[in-house]
Design brief:
2 strands; two-stranded antiparallel ribbon; alpha+beta; elongated
Length: about 80
């Protein structure tokens, strides 16, 4: 029962759905990105050495004063880290 016709295959339907989802996900969420004032923070770009030796660019920011503060770690996903994150 192997018929060939002009209808969309399950694979083509899946790929179309994935492509559409990706296109919607990478669009800007807001008209203008929100930026955070860095007053009172020590903020800079840095690099983290991956196990394979590749230097992965990173950004760090922490309060200029204080000790034993909580940590927030953001990992880039396939769509990239948008400025509003």
């Amino acid at each position: 029962m192997n018929e060939t016709n002009d209808s969309m295959t399950r694979r083509a339907l899946l790929m179309t759905g994935l492509s559409t989802g990706f296109a919607l996900a990478v669009q800007p969420i807001a008209e203008a990105a929100i930026t955070t004032d860095s007053t009172g923070l020590i903020a800079d770009e840095t690099a983290i050495k991956a196990p394979d030796g590749v230097m992965v660019p990173a950004y760090h920011a922490y309060p200029a004063r204080g000790t034993n503060l909580p940590v927030v770690f953001v990992v880039q996903v396939i769509f990239g880290v948008h400025e509003q994150i």
